[in-house]
Amino acid sequence: LVQKWVLREISNFEYLMQLNTIAGRTYNDLSQYPVFPWILRDYVSETLDLSNPDVFRDLSKPIGVANERHAKDVKENFEDPTGMIDKFHYGTHYSNAAGVMHYLIRTEPFTTLHIQLQSGRFDCSDRQFHSVPAAWQARMENPVDVKELIPEFFYFPEFLENQNGFDLGCLQMSNDKVSDVVLPRWARSREDFIYQHRKALESEYVSAHLHEWIDLIFGYKQRGPAAVEALNVFYYCTYEGELQDPGRAQPRVSVCPSPSSSSSPGAVDLDAIADETQRKALEGIISNFGQTPCQL
């Protein structure tokens, strides 16, 4: 697969989808939904110049430090607040069930799932996915918001349209009604956004740097000393099997994503936990925090 990608026999999109599948990601599990990178940082220009490296995000850095100003704070926050678990940089995850519903709120069955998650109503309008430029700006301003993208951003224009006419409320500051997703200025339509965004994914710049992001999500910078150095360590329960804290002599045990994880060395077998309350709590953590893909 790597060889096919290197020889450009398959596209960047196909390569990422294959890696997601091999690493246990699937459309059938919201807590292990396929994850794709933010690849652009220019959402304000009238035209998108893919020959200009400045329009692209630095793919060698986690989304939490895509804004370099956040790196110092993230590094200083690398700690275990309780003294009982492994240290981490981020208490939230770049991919989880709530994040998938956030992006797909206008499309069933994700609309209904979102409403169920929010106790029978839509979330506050300002927290909804209402604008692509605003979503990127949130990543730049808030190191706690570390959501990456989903594959739909590269092929599915319908998720950007409020085709069902859902009442998503109004934004507090502007009082603008939330309906279709606001697009970057360089996109003439939803279809044009998908076309240009997919074109950006297959560009020379991304082709030359995509492996750096893959290292963070699927590869050697996912855990261990390389992850610490890359500011890429997440809450310990998001990792499958054993997670070695560089500061500890012995590996810590975290929850394996698979409910029947007894075959995974060092993982917690949820089925073996007799206390139903404890088991439900662990399942809730896995579902809400998201899961790091299997390391490839």
UniProtKB/TrEMBL annotation:
Repeat found in the keyword field: yes
Pfam family, one: Beach
UniProt-recorded Gene Ontology molecular function terms: protein kinase binding
SMART domains cross-referenced by the UniProt entry: Beach
UniProtKB keywords: Repeat, WD repeat
GO-annotated cellular components: cytosol; membrane
Positions of the UniProt region annotated as Disordered: 248-268
GO biological process: intracellular protein localization
Location of the BEACH domain: 1-296
Name by which UniProt lists this protein: NBEL2 protein
Organism name: Nothocercus julius
The organism's taxonomic lineage, starting at the top: Eukaryota, Metazoa, Chordata, Craniata, Vertebrata
